[in-house]
Amino acid sequence: MSDDLLDQWHRAAANELEARVKNRLFFLTIGIDPSQAQGGSTSSPTDVAPETWDTVAEGVEQWLEGIDPDAADADDPPSYEARPAETSIELTATPKKPKRRGTDPLVVNPYPSVSSFGGSYTTGPPPEFDDGT
């Protein structure tokens, strides 16, 4: 999946869930699994029928209704996989603080993050410096 298509899927999932899911006891974090989006006939989120997004939202609502926000483990948040078309959308639910429950937003990452790391977490000893002497 190209970065552009991944961006489209992420934004579409965020917009559709924000508009269709009424439960506001949790924050949802969205992750799109590009390795799961290779097959199938739907190449773009604009190809997904509104009824399919309704079905996804209903599944998310039922999942969230089954979670007690006061008992959910913030270190190991509950997760759910939605699959409109052949694209895997991984959701995690983090309970909102009691004063924030019932408020917007639902999705905490409406835009995909771009991160890459090409080095080591430890640099080790510095390289020897040859000053020519």
Word description of this protein:
- There is one protein chain.
- The chain is an alpha+beta fold and 133 residues long.
- The protein has helices spanning 3-20, 50-65; strands spanning 26-33, 79-82, 88-95.
- Helix content is 26%, strand content 15%.
- Strands 1-3-2 form a 3-stranded antiparallel sheet.
- The longest helix has 18 residues, at 3-20.
- The chain starts with a helix and ends in a 38-residue tail after the last strand.
Keywords summarizing the entry:
alpha+beta, 133 residues, 15% strand, 3 strands, extended, 2 helices
Please outline what is shown here.
Helix content is 26%, strand content 15%. It has 2 helices and 3 strands, in the order αβαββ.
The number of E-state strands comes to: 3
Q: H/E series, N to C? A: HEHEE
Radius of gyration from CA coordinates: 20 Å
Q: Give the class from helix and strand content and strand pairing.
A: alpha+beta
State mean pLDDT (0 to 100 scale): 85
| Backbone shape | extended
Strand order of the largest sheet: 1-3-2
Between the first and last Cα atoms, what is the distance in angstroms?
53 Å
The main sheet comes to: 3 strands, antiparallel
Number of helices: 2
Helix content: 25-40%
In terms of DSSP E residues, the strand content is 15-25%
- Provide the low-confidence segments as ranges: 115-119
